[in-house]
Design goal:
Layout: E1 2-3, E2 13-19, H1 21-24, H2 27-39, E3 43-50, H3 54-60, H4 70-77, E4 82-89, H5 92-100, H6 105-111, H7 116-120, E5 129-131, H8 135-145, H9 151-164, E6 167-170, E7 175-178
Helix pairs in contact: 3-4
The structure holds adenosine-3',5'-cyclic-monophosphate.
Length: 182
Amino acid sequence: MFISVPRLCRVLQLTLAVIKPDAVAHPLILETLHEKILENNFIIIRRQDFIWKKEDSEMFYAEHSGRFFYQRLVEFMSSGPMQAYVLARDDAIRHWREMMGPTKVFRARHTSPDTIRGRFGLTDTRNTTHGSDSLESAHKEIKFFFPDFCVDRWMEEEEPLYRTGKVYYDPLKMIHALSIPG
Ligand code: CMP
């Protein structure tokens, strides 16, 4: 599947998207979310399965420690497999967050029933997906999941190639790559 060049005229931004254990447990939801990512013109730069220990959850969500939902959250995030993506697109952070909808599932169901959380979320904790909320957190969170991925280097060396070159989707690996010239 080739992405045409004119569509990719604005600078690409990276974000981290996580499909949480509640969604990964349901293959059809997982497949639908992957399709949604593709339909929304995200370029999938990395995609990997993860199973967290409780300590990983505690580290990732340290900013929420002390909140009433913290224990529930860290236990849930280490309760089963999840999938993390590094996604590229213009305005990727905002766009993915808009697709997810409100954090609180009960609110999402009322105000934004067509969003990911509105459709698939189970509870405010088991809310299907996560997405970085700023450039700074995207850097931090991508590094947390993919320590060998350097956002700054990718922006400098690869972003112009993905933006102006031909990009293809590898259906086996379920990620995008730059096409080999010729
Ligand atoms: P996420 O976008 O991953 O960021 C922090 C997570 O904390 C959030 O999704 C929810 O899973 C969880 N969370 C936030 N607010 C609440 C809440 N009020 N009750 C339970 N869990 C919450």
